Amino acid sequence: MARTVVTGHAGFIGFHLAQRLLNQGNVVLGIDGMTDYYDPQLKRDRLAQLRRTENFTHEERMLEHRDEIVALILRFQPDAIVHLAAQAGVRYSLENPAAYIESNVLGTFTVLEAARQAKPKHLLMASTSSVYGGNQKVPFAETDRTDAPISLYAATKKAGEDLAHSYSSLHQLPTTAFRFFTVYGPWGRPDMALFKFVDAIQHGRAIDVYGNGEMRRDFTYIDDLVDGIVGLLDRPPALGRPVSQLDSLSAVAPFRSVNIGGGNPVGLMDFIAAIEDSLGQKARANLLPMQTGDMVETYAEPALLEALIGRAPRTPLSQGVREFVNWYNNYCAGFREE
Ligand SMILES: NC(=O)c1ccc[n+]([C@@H]2O[C@H](COP(=O)([O-])OP(=O)(O)OC[C@H]3O[C@@H](n4cnc5c(N)ncnc54)[C@H](O)[C@@H]3O)[C@@H](O)[C@H]2O)c1
Predict the structure, then answer these.
(1) Which member of 35, 127, 139, 206 lies 3.0 to 4.6 Å from 284 by CB, making a disulfide possible if both were Cys?
(2) What is the pLDDT of residues 96-114, one digit of tens each?
(3) Mean per-residue pLDDT over the chain, rounded
(4) Residues 179, 257: contact at Cβ < 8 Å?
């Protein structure tokens, strides 16, 4: 039974991870500021699910309150910290850049200070495929350059990776930075394409399809993503011990970045077709140009993940979309726990 801090546990990914850890009999301290970037009712409803489980503590706090958060984590004495709390979303970083600096840079600094003092066996933190920025070469490999961010969101996540690398080097803190690729599934985020498209089609509205539908993405089903995080929890990086030639392990710190993506890009129009199949309804699409900061094609080289945990995401898109639509229909039919 391990003791794990999960930041951002009321968020989409943190909720699923906390649920898995609790179901496996672990003790979880969740820290989440319950921000209103999207409807906090969805966060409260996720939380109500977690509260059904023993061994779970919820702390509603912003990570920027450094002294409080560090004290909280020190008292808990974690074996591991999984840092998922962040201001997410590429497009919103044009509208509210300060939220990204505060949550992703200052918030991550707090987590690093807590880790330096609490000395968990492993610190894991969420980064993003967006750090590959303007790179032309696909699939994206962890050893590719990540010094050309094209959104402030990406720049703040990359800053988080770099801050963590310095702490890992200075304090011998085993650290894994995951780079997630478009995660989707039940309890998903209302600002992401799947939720928005299903909601619009169900209500007879047209959907806005950016990049004229030519974007391609590695869509990662939430259960596969959680398998990846849980698999990596027990694989803290060790200095001088790479697992393969493709390992991104730092030469000077027990630090590596790992893609969690399946390496099977799907075009946006095929994604929409999967939604139409699931709903049994056709979408009306407004084809629009690319939005500033968006990338045309992102997909993962999954070889490092496979070398570390023996598998990569594999749920077929049609199945994952069906699971989302089932959840959406139940949830929006008035399911509220609080
Ligand atoms: N969902 C994806 O496709 C995706 C892709 C790449 C990376 N990521 C990363 O994965 C992580 C989780 O994303 P998600 O999709 O679950 O997002 P989410 O917005 O659903 O969850 C993030 C949670 O963090 C909390 N939070 C935000 N700022 C905070 C702060 N300063 N202090 C305390 N709590 C704060 C929010 O209240 C929210 O509940 C993020 O780090 C995100 O950048 C997600």
Answers:
(1) 206
(2) 999 999 999 999 999 999 9
(3) 96
(4) yes
CB of 11 closer than 6 A to ligand 1? yes
- CATH number of the domain encompassing residue 170: 3.40.50.720
Does 325 reside within a domain? no
Is the pLDDT at 321 greater than 90? The verdict is yes
31 within 8 A of 85, measured Cβ to Cβ: yes
Q: From the alpha carbon of 63, which atom of ligand 1 is closest?
A: 32
Full residue range of the structural domain in which residue 53 is found: 3-185+219-262+299-314
64 lines ligand 1 (CB under 6 A): yes
What digits encode the pLDDT tens for the residues 188-239?
Answer: 999 999 999 999 999 999 999 998 899 999 999 999 999 999 999 999 999 9
Cα separation, 253 vs 274, whole angstroms: 43
Does 296 have pLDDT greater than 90? no
Q: Is residue 233 in a domain?
A: yes
231 CA from centroid of ligand 1 (Å): 20
Residue 183 in contact with ligand 1 by CB distance below 6 A: yes
Kindly state whether residue 125 falls inside one of the protein's structural domains.
Answer: yes
Peptide bond into 120 cis (omega under 30): no
Q: Is 299 a catalytic residue?
A: no
Residue 180: predicted pLDDT: 98
* Predicted TM-score of the model (pTM): 0.97
What distance in angstroms lies between residue 283's CA and the mean position of ligand 1's atoms?
29
pLDDT band per the 50, 70, 90 thresholds, residue 334: low
* Ligand 1: nearest atom to the Cα of 14: 16
In a domain, 111, yes or no: yes
SS3 per-residue string spanning 144-185: CCCCCCCCHHHHHHHHHHHHHHHHHHHHCCCEEEEEECCEEC
What's the structural domain count of the chain? Answer: 1
